Amino acid sequence: MLKKVFEPIRIGNLEIKNRFVVPPMVVSLCNEDGTITERFIDYHEAKAKGGFGLIVTENYAITPAGRGFKYMGCMWNDEQMESNKELTKRVHKHGAKIALQIIHAGRETSSSLTGMKIVAPSAIPDPVIGEMPHPLTEEEIKVIVEEFGDAALRAKKAGFDAVEIQGAHGYLINQFMSPFSNKRVDKYGGNLMNRARFALEVIENIKSKVGEDYPIMYRISADELIENGLTIEDTKVIVKMLEDAGVSAIDVSVGVYASGFHITAPAAVKHGWEADFAKEFKSVVSIPVITSGRINNPFLAEGILLSEKADMIGMARASLSDPELPNKAKEGRFDEIIECIGCRQGCSGMLSKDLPVNCVVNPMTGNEKALSISQAEDKKKIFVIGGGPGGMEAAIVARKRGHEVHLFEKNNELGGQLLLASVPPTKSEITSFVVWQKTQLEKLKVNVHLNTEVDEALLKKENPDHIIVATGANPFIPPIKGADSDMVVNSNDVLSSKVEVEQNALIVGGGLVGAETAEHLARHSKNVTLVELTGEIARECEPGVRFFLMESLDTLNINIMTNTQVQEIGNNKVVVSSDEEEIVIENIDTVIMASGSRPNNKLFESIKEEYKNIRLIGDSLKVRTILDAVNEGYKAALEI
Q: CA distances (Å), 585 to each of 303, 532, 566, 628, in order?
């Protein structure tokens, strides 16, 4: 069924077994001194073992002044080089090739992180960082050029098959290239040839140190997606310059920090959207072009290759959700592939907090050894109560460990809150994870009991050895006058289509659920008013997801009322107060409560004293995210 993705390809003189690429992603698994850890090696080895042809490491800083993250890899001294020899050895063991990306962050870092003044082509702060940089002198530029070459030589000595220059995402090389950040009037500024000079000098220096035959890749933002930034017409000229300078492959991305939510775009952005930029590059260069950007399954990858938009496919977050994707695709095990759902919670969400990267749909990401699944010595009878994502994950892992597992769900369908979360626009990919979990339950022959509510009588009759309670949460109805009116429903019933919403709806609560319910109804031609007590909508939402959600809400003509409290509901009207002013909103047909949830732990509280081996997980413990629920379900089963 798939053919093109498994064809070998050459980057310079380097032969790669297939077209699957793991692009660079900072994962916060390194030591503060820039040396790498066993976890970092395990993380990359899993992808090599899973069948990826080429792995490009996260950006390694070439100098202390150029690091952009606290726990990133670095390559400015030989000790850092030595710690990477085991990494390349372990990746090569599985037939994969590995390239090391080198970087200087320039103004896209902070002095509080580096301990020294940040630098840039010009004395202009990055809009996101906000710190004034020191404009580099020509002598300082020469030093940095040498540091790039030295880092590349260390990469070669450490066993890396190629080096990739980070010329994208608004880092230092990109800062020189772009009129957005480069206002110089010397030989490094002004016209495009001058702005490209720094990158070309870096390439020349690297080649002089590693040799002409050592492959150099270059990552570029095809479009910076900002006012006065580089566009595809600019970068088509630049990539031709890079090819002429001896670059062996172009790795295509987009954006800078000021447009950063597009770099790791959430589910609101269409699949493979960057491939059209890659196709533009293929029209002007003859070297391999790598594309990425929301490509989360092998069929998308095959389609892009067959349409000749790119030569290789970068699957960054897809490799987080399932490092075995290529092998599963090659063996036709498509229903076993865990697809990225574009939520950004475990990847970008963790990175922004300097925490190790994880994945909502794959708890093993970044924990390949610590959370590996092995057979339990003592096989037990396990009851998992609740068929949401946490409960299903617990049942899957427990069964893989050899236990007898019974999964109970009081409703007629598995999925829990994910069934509701998948309804709003752009969230449908969540269903792929539900389908994967259900498929696993079936293949593993887990005993699934639908329409079954567990009580003390059932537990006494069956006498399980261990109980995992994942009973989720119930909607919270605030004490508002008229909240018991016939015109009032809750958001869960709306999203599950248990109730029909009439034309004019008012939603109480502007958290993520309320905001996404508003978007869902507005896109189905309802007139929507959204009332939020605080000053911000969807404030708990992952920032990248929130950016596109708010952008959507702005286009839908939704009446959003913040810093507003609902006082009374009834007679097709809602009374609210804002700044001590009372407002009556007329002609409201349906009032939807989206005021949060409270843990449903009634069963747990009633049996916890009687049953010693019992564990409470997910929202039934504390209302949080799918990331928490799945991780807790996984670990709960692993610890039995």
A: 51, 15, 10, 38
How much is the pLDDT for 524?
A: 96
Q: Which of 43, 60, 71, 171 is catalytic?
A: 171
User: What 3-state class would DSSP assign to 541?
Assistant: coil
- Return the percentage of the chain with pLDDT > 90, whole number: 99
What residues have CB less than 8 Å from 484, skipping those under 6 apart? none
In DSSP notation, 360-406 reads: TT-TTTT-TTTT-----SS--EEEEE--SHHHHHHHHHHHHTT-EEE
Neighbours of 610 (CB within 10 A): 10
Shared domain for 464 and 451, answered yes or no, is yes
Contact 301, 20 (CB under 8 A): yes
**Distance in angstroms (rounded) separating the CA atoms of residues 321 and 362:** 5
Q: What is the pLDDT of residue 579?
A: 85
Q: Strand pairing partners for 120?
A: 135
pLDDT at 343: 97
Instruction: Report the pLDDT value the prediction gives residue 1, as an integer from 0 to 100.
Output: 80
Query: What is the side-by-side strand order in the sheet with 614-616?
Result: 447-449, 404-408, 381-385, 466-469, 614-616
d(CA 280, CA 232): 8
- Find, among 257, 129, 142, the residue nearest to 188 by Cα: 142
Q: Are residues 232 and 268 in the same domain?
A: yes
Residues of the chain with pLDDT under 70: none
Mark whether 335 and 423 lie in a shared domain.
no
- Could you tell me if residue 376 is inside a domain? no
Backbone angles phi, psi at 388, to 5 degrees: -85, -170
Active site annotation includes 43: no
CATH number at residue 178: 3.20.20.70
Instruction: Give pLDDT, residue 580.
Output: 79
Beta bridge partners of 165: 102, 218
Q: How confident is the model at residue 558, as a pLDDT?
A: 96
Q: Which residues pair with 163 in a beta bridge?
A: 100, 216
- Within a 13 Å sphere around the CA of 89, how many CA atoms are in the beta-carbon half? 8
Same domain flag for 632 and 604 = yes
Identify the pLDDT of residue 262: 96
The domain in which residue 44 lies consists of: 4-351
Edge-to-edge strands, sheet with 488-490: 488-490, 590-593, 504-508, 527-531, 559-561
Give the model's pLDDT for residue 139: 98
- C-alpha–C-alpha distance, residues 45 and 87, integer Å: 8
Q: Is residue 558 domain-resident?
A: yes
pLDDT of amino acid 99: 98
pLDDT tens by residue, 352-369: 999 999 999 999 999 999
**Residue 299 corresponds to which tokens in the numbers above?**
């069929």
Q: For 44-96, where are the E strands, in sequence order?
A: 54-61
Tokens 């300078």 -> residue: 245
